[in-house]
Design a protein that fits this description.
By secondary structure, the chain is α+β, with helices and mostly antiparallel strands. The protein has one domain. Helix content is 15%, strand content 46%. The protein contains two helices and nine strands. The strands form two sheets. The chain has a five-stranded mixed sheet, with no helix packed on it. It has a four-stranded antiparallel sheet with strand order 5-6-7-8, with no helix packed on it.
Length: 164
């Protein structure tokens, strides 16, 4: 009886969360019979026109969540690749070594998120995009990296290029 009550409470919440689709999703590949998928999203950098990043991550199914019991958490693994889609226009970006977050998505109810951070490398005149998990405790070393060299592209800095 207790399992039925838990299911009756959790099932409507799961359906509500599943209905909140992300319009950035460009594809989804099934990986097993329980419905687990690898989702692929196009992530646009709000301050850099002409660059798109594609982020792939594991998306747990309803069946997997129920059978594993770890309902509110997804794995931290991800893959990231960025490419130039046209002339690059760079707006007001943070050029400090710590970079600037351009995307965030929760991977657990509270504690864990999947992020994309942009770092400008002035010495090589490149934009570095880092896909990584962030956790309140027990940080994860799972990451993915993509680099856009600016010296080979048509680039406009709306606020002027940074000076060395």
């Amino acid at each position: 009886m207790n399992r039925f009550v838990n299911f009756a409470i959790v099932a409507p919440l799961a359906l509500l969360l599943a209905a909140c689709g992300d319009s950035r999703e460009v594809g989804s590949v099934g990986v097993d019979w329980t419905g687990n998928d690898i989702a692929i999203e196009a992530v646009a950098d709000p301050e850099v026109d002409g660059v798109v990043c594609h982020l792939a991550y594991f998306n747990r199914s309803f069946i997997d969540r129920v059978s594993q019991g770890n309902w509110f958490e997804d794995p931290s693994y991800s893959a990231l690749d960025c490419s130039v889609t046209g002339p690059i226009t760079i707006g007001d970006i943070n050029t400090r070594p710590g970079g600037e977050e351009v995307f965030r998505q929760g991977r657990s109810l509270i504690w864990k998120s999947l992020r994309v951070t942009r770092v400008y490398d002035q010495s090589s005149n490149s934009l570095i995009y880092l896909g990584h998990a962030r956790q309140v405790q027990q940080g994860s070393g799972k990451m993915s990296l993509s680099v856009i060299p600016l010296s080979t592209e048509q680039v406009v800095w709306t606020n002027g290029a940074p000076t060395p």
